[in-house]
Amino acid sequence: MAPDDGPTKTKRLYQVWKGSNRFFFGGRLIFGPDVASLFLSTFLIAGPAIAFCIRMYIKIKHENTNVGRGYSMLTLGALLSALDLGFLFFTSGRDPGILPRNSTPPDSDEAFEETTPSMEWVNGRTPHLKLPRTKDVMVNGHTVKVKYCDTCLLYRPPRASHCSICNNCVLRFDHHCPWVGQCIGVRNYRFFFMFISTSTILCLYVFVCSWINVLEKETDNERNIWKALSHDILSVILIVYCFIAVWFVGGLTVFHFYLICSNQTTYENFRYRYDKKENPYNKGTAGNLGEMFFSKIPPSLNNFRSFVEESEHIVMGTMTPNCVEGQISSKEKIDIEMGNRLAEDTGYSLPEILRNLDYDDLEDEMMINKEGERLQLFKMEMEMEDLWKATLQEMKLIRQKTQNVASLIESSNINWSAASADKLGKSKYICLFGCPKHLMVVGSCKCCV
Q: Where is the Palmitoyltransferase DHHC domain (predicted)?
């Protein structure tokens, strides 16, 4: 699609942004495409928290209890709930570290004298882009490969990755969290960890306080725990709910605390990148904790409220590194617009499971399979060549033996007649031991008749 020849329209960046994000309040808040899940997460937190506060208020007003302690428990529960919801919205509603897209591919002025397998593959898919698929960069004395993104038309910085759901490259990409409806990256990972850790603390707090309420009921009912439970159904529900929820949020908190201490991301940990090699980002436990909790959060690289010319972003969003429409690969169709363009052209939407696939790993596997097929084909060609050489050698030996036999027959002046052939029970047109004139030709030889 080419830009219109007429006057270009000026719009804000968030209005022409080609990612799958949802913007609110004039581009001040940015969410993922699955922002609706944020309402479910809010309900799962606020519902039990409100129920707990109501239970504590009833206990203060209508039950014989310590008013000061009751208000303290109520206030602390409300404060933890407010913090938890605040961290949830801080995580979900801010830019996670989205990389600005390029309107054109990087300059390819560098001369690549050596043809690498990755470069051949890129040229095969996009002949006019003379760019290698990967490049090596140095990070703290270690060589790290960075990949080229066909959608954003840039080389991703180290630890950055393209989110298949939001359709953006994100700095220090950790994962896309469906519970907050947003990518987790360099600019919101701290708030995400505070959200899950506060959720764990809130679950434990409500769990313990609800048991205290039940045990106090037990005292009023002559130490009968079953009567106490039957008289405080709301506390029982909160106990069961918090017991189940704490395993999820508590497990996440422990796992991400381990990742912080070892300076890994979820994406890196799931791919086992540092099992057999040293982590170039690891600064030790204390250094990693300091970097995560006390370092300055980098500013956003995008000003979504800035004014841009719409035509520039039309080119940027629709530019496909392809020469022939019929030769476009399925990977390009998926990675360029994450299935949207394919859905518009064919009327079929791309399944969710395909949009969530990690196509970087798929590309690597396809390259490995292709190299394996090439190696197998090369081995078969070598075997055929050896077989052909052996066949030629055998034919040469047979020819040499034939010449030797012919010379022997010619020197002995043997002349086979039809009568001698008939005595042997053979046709008169068959040279049984060979004709000296035709050198072992077996068939219709009339010279011996």
A: 146-271
